[in-house]
Amino acid sequence: MGTKWKAFLLSAAILVFSGVAMAEPIVVYVPLTAPYSDTSMIAKGILDSCKLPEGQIDFLEEAAQADGGFKIVRDKDAAKKKGLVLLVEITNAISGGNAFVGHHKQVSIKGRLLKNGVEIGNFTGFRSSGGGAWAGYKSSCGVLERCIKVLGKDVIQWLKNPGKNGRIGQ
Fold it and tell me: Which residue has the higher pLDDT, 18 or 128?
């Protein structure tokens, strides 16, 4: 057996016996979407064209997979589950500007973390974006999606140390 192979086996054994390789992600139940808190506060164009409620949960799940510490489980009855339940709502979405004059987009969210039905933490937060590189070629919904993608990462970071009245994002 070659030296590289022996080193690989030794590294794998150390990870297994240290418990690093055996650590299971923490399961967190979420609803199928992050609904708008009040659709009367959201512009009709955003409601009609953008899929922010579905996208917010997609990006939350993506961020959890990248982090590895949490496993997001979608469940239409998440609020009734035992264990950890995360309820996220989109409180506002603003779509100012456009590809020609510059994007000025912002998404605000709030969330509650329940453990066996009892609230153990909550947060509010927002992210804004001008569209980033090549913004002139991005749609308004695309720029709003940039906001919810980063908010998904922010929520996963908050889950590592949840508390009451937390602030995430900018």
Answer: 128
